[in-house]
Amino acid sequence: MTTLGNLLENNAAWAASLLERDPAFFSRLQQQQAPEYLWIGCSDSRVPANEIVGLAPGELFVHRNVANVVVHTDLNCLSVLQYAIDVLGVKHVIVTGHYGCGGVRAAYDDARFGLIDNWLRHVEDVKRRHEEMLSRLDTERAIDRLCELNVIEQARHVCETTIVQDAWERHHRPVSVHGWIYGLGDGRLRPLGFAASSNGDVERAYRSALESLETPLQASTGHP
After folding, report:
1. pTM of the predicted model, to two decimals?
2. Residue 55: CB atoms within 10 Å
3. Is residue 58 in a domain?
4. Hey, which residues does 92 pair with through a beta bridge?
């Protein structure tokens, strides 16, 4: 059974192993944070952002919430986005969902758990917007597809924030927004066809990503 003491022991071993490989690692790390990427992902403990993209501490700025939702009134998410772009100068914002997302499944099933139901209404909105596409699939495939659609919609929301719009308008920093999805079953990340680097790209990226979901080659890989 894992205890808090085990966690502290694990931390000590991890720090010691890093220092053994690179004695200056922590000294260098504390001097500056200069990541090129902002990861907006799900809180799910099975999706460790740094690990699955093979980046070290300091190389990936991260914001996580249930079902990787981006809401224009969420000051937490918006503050992270603004700091990442305007202060850290990240070049890529990557919205990353995952197959098997409990929040997406709850929204699809209209399940009720309490306070979180209000948050998941945003995913229910995505479900209603794409009801016709989802209705053509069996339940498990439809939930996988909703995971994909949710990423695409949230990536578009990132592009529509005043933060990204201002960055693009001022041309002071190159910023691209991407939509990816992660497979719990195979550990692989897959781009969903959404990539935008200017305001003029957004609608094209959104339509292209949705169209790619309609083709057999882009069918959900959450289930074999």
Report:
1. 0.91
2. 15
3. yes
4. 37, 176
Contact 99, 221 (CB under 8 A): yes
| Beta carbons within 8 Å of 25's beta carbon, 6+ residues apart | 18, 19
Q: Per-residue pLDDT tens for 42-56?
A: 999 999 999 999 998
Spatial contact of 150 and 66, defined as CB atoms under 8 Å apart: no
Indicate which residues carry an active-site annotation. 42, 44, 46, 98, 101
pLDDT band, residue 215 (cuts 50/70/90):
low
Q: Are residues 145 and 57 in the same domain?
A: yes
Section 132-150 average pLDDT: 97
Residue 223 lies in a domain: no
147 located within any domain? yes
Q: Is the pLDDT of residue 36 over 80?
A: yes
Q: Is residue 207 part of a domain?
A: yes
**Is the CB of residue 20 less than 8 Å from the CB of residue 75?**
no
Query: How wide is the angle at C-alpha 148 spanned by C-alphas 145 and 151, nearest 5°?
Result: 150
Q: Count how many domains the chain has.
A: 2
Main-chain dihedrals φ then ψ at residue 157, nearest 5 degrees: -60, -40
Kind and range of the H or E run holding 155:
helix 139-160
Looking at the fold, whether 82 and 149 belong to one and the same domain comes out as: yes
Q: What is residue 177's three-state secondary structure?
A: strand
Range of the domain at 22: 1-31
Q: Are 24 and 37 within one domain?
A: no
The secondary structure of residue 38, as a DSSP letter, is E
Shared domain for 14 and 93, answered yes or no, is no
Domain check: are 6 and 53 in the same one?
no
Average pLDDT on 152-174 reads 92
